[in-house]
Amino acid sequence: RAAWTSDDLPCDRVPHARRSTTLNHGTAPSDRRGDRAGRAARARGVEVTLRTGDAQDPPLPPGSLDVITASSVLQFLPRPRRAVRAWLELLAPGGRLVAITGASFAPDNPAWASAFARLQERGRVVFSAAIDGAVYAKHGTTIDTRLTVIDKLPADDPSAFPAAPGVAPD
């Protein structure tokens, strides 16, 4: 299960987004990330609703969001491909999914290449880069991760992906 943090939370880095959600792993909407996001939104005068739901079967209507951020969720799901398909359905046309995952969730990883090619029939990978785990050392972990950005627009060529920029250092 995942804690759904507001379908109305403003996204500072995507100013045109009116409707967004953040997916966090946890067992209840009162987990620390949800609480922190709720406080930040309320400080800006935005009403926030915290919901708990299954990340593979989101409790929101299709096309209802402009942005979804998913942090450390996919690697905990039994069917991550299903979850990504469901998240793309939640996005309005041109919407954006920003995912932080394990470093191996990459278009150039043979284990994921065909899944990414199928995904690009509905959503275009616009950026994907590994992040050195040392970046998180001050938070008590050094696990390598990946930042992937997918826009809800079909790719011109589903088998073509943006060039990987290498690993982001600490």
End-to-end Cα distance, whole Å, is 31 Å
Shape: globular
Query: Order of strands in the sheet with the most strands?
Result: 3-1-2-4-5-7-6-8
Q: Could you give the order of the helices and strands?
A: EEHEEHEHEEE
| Estimated share of beta-strand residues | 25-35%
Q: What kind of sheet is the major sheet?
A: 8 strands, mixed
Query: Count the strands?
Result: 8
Structural class: alpha/beta
Report a brief summary of the structure.
The chain has 170 residues and is α/β, with parallel strands linked by helices. It has helices at 32-43, 80-90, 113-119, and strands at residues 2-5, 20-25, 50-53, 65-71, 91-102, 124-131, 145-151, 167-168.
Any chance you could write out the topology, listing elements then pairs?
Blueprint: E1 2-5, E2 20-25, H1 32-43, E3 50-53, E4 65-71, H2 80-90, E5 91-102, H3 113-119, E6 124-131, E7 145-151, E8 167-168
Parallel strand pairs: 2-4, 4-5, 6-8
Antiparallel strand pairs: 1-2, 1-3, 5-7, 6-7
